[in-house]
Amino acid sequence: MLDTGHPQLRLPSSTGGPRCWWSSATSRRGRVAPCLAVPHDAAVRPFYDASYVPQTRYAKTADGVHIAYQVLGEGPFDIVFVNSNFSSNVEILWEWEELAASLRWLAARGRLVVFDRRGTGLSDSVSGDRLPTLEARMDDIGAVMDAVGIARAILYGLEDAAAQCFMFAATYPERTAAIITFGAASRGTWAPDAPWLWTEERWASWLGQIEGGWGTSKFTEDVATVVFPSRARDPRFLQTYGRAMRQSMRPADALASGRMHMERRMYATSFH
User: Fold this and answer.
1) Is residue 117 within 8 Å of 151, Cβ to Cβ?
2) Which contacts of 38-43 are long-range, i.e. CB under 8 A and separated by 24 or more positions?
3) How many whole angstroms separate alpha carbon 155 and alpha carbon 74?
4) Best CA proximity match to 212, nearest among 240, 245, 251, 261
5) What CATH number should be reported for the domain holding residue 197?
6) 3-state secondary structure of 244
7) Is residue 10 domain-resident?
8) 37 to each of 78, 168, 177, how far by Cα in Å?
9) Residue 151 lies in a domain
10) Alpha-carbon distance 210 to 220, whole Å?
11) Using the 8-state DSSP alphabet, how is residue 140 labeled?
């Protein structure tokens, strides 16, 4: 079954599957990449064996950073999943049932690529003294696409990963079929046109929490209370989530990630 009217991707869940709307990517030159019809019928392809974990490979960016990635599935679409820094380890993520189920659902409908951005998981670390620019981090996407042999893909950016997806689409519209985002923000810190975002004082407090509590059960529970409130008292979930965070970033990398998120400027200023 193809949805040719309102393109949408329905992700699996215990409640029947929330809908994640996706839109075409608009380039800095004003061109719009056409929307693709995505199959969303559960019978399109069977789910992959939950015990199967794809082989990890490495791509190398133009500035010499090694990026760990995996490929799963096949089909008419190439989907590049850019994960949240807090759950980015291409081998550990398959142990997290909630995330693994969604990824296998995507892989049942097209060729899925998952990777660890620089500074996370199995990829090379970043320097806390010299943080990479958004443009450099954006190139992680292109390096992985080149390594797999993908000319054009649907980008799926989770939380802070949306910034790289937006920048990539604006820079390479011909390589971007569409963008899906979840939990995206327009910039890193508070501004008059984004009053719901954190102030610099709140960011300083958050970085202090990371420095003092990263990897602890208390820190995991505090984060889950905000991000996964319905699961914040579930011991099994908290154990898995805490392990995913610890395996995604070391304390220094977590601090660098927080600083990169905070120091982002409004995406639109980079796209003009």
Assistant:
1) no
2) 38/2, 38/3, 38/7, 38/8, 38/9, 38/77, 38/109, 38/110, 38/154, 39/1, 39/2, 39/3, 39/109, 40/1, 40/3, 40/8, 40/9, 40/10, 40/109, 41/1
3) 16
4) 251
5) 3.40.50.1820
6) helix
7) no
8) 13, 21, 11
9) yes
10) 10
11) H
Each residue's pLDDT, cut to its tens digit, for the chain (272 residues) gives 222 233 334 434 333 333 333 333 333 333 333 333 444 443 444 445 667 889 999 999 999 999 999 999 988 999 999 998 888 999 999 988 888 999 999 998 899 999 999 989 999 988 666 677 888 889 999 999 999 999 999 999 998 889 899 999 999 999 999 999 988 877 778 888 888 888 889 989 989 999 999 999 999 999 999 888 999 999 999 999 999 999 999 888 888 888 877 776 544 444 44
- Number of domains the chain is built from: 1
Which amino acid, residue 54? P
Q: Rounded CA gap, 66 and 18, in Å? A: 34
Amino acid at 59: A
pLDDT of residue 49: 65
> In angstroms, rounded to a whole number, what is the distance separating the alpha carbons of residues 139 and 192?
30
Give yes or no for a contact between 157 and 114, defined as CB atoms under 8 angstroms apart: no
State the pTM of this model: 0.79
DSSP codes joined into one string, 76-95: S-EEEEE--GGG--TTGGGG
Give dist(CA 186, CA 158) in Å, integer.
13
**What tokens were used for 59?**
């791509």
Does residue 155 sit within a domain? yes
CA pair distance 272, 71, nearest whole angstrom? 33
Do residues 103 and 112 lie in contact, with contact meaning Cβ atoms separated by under 8 Å?
Answer: yes
Residue 167, domain extent = 15-271
Q: Is residue 122 part of a domain?
A: yes
| Residue linked to tokens 């610099």 | 200
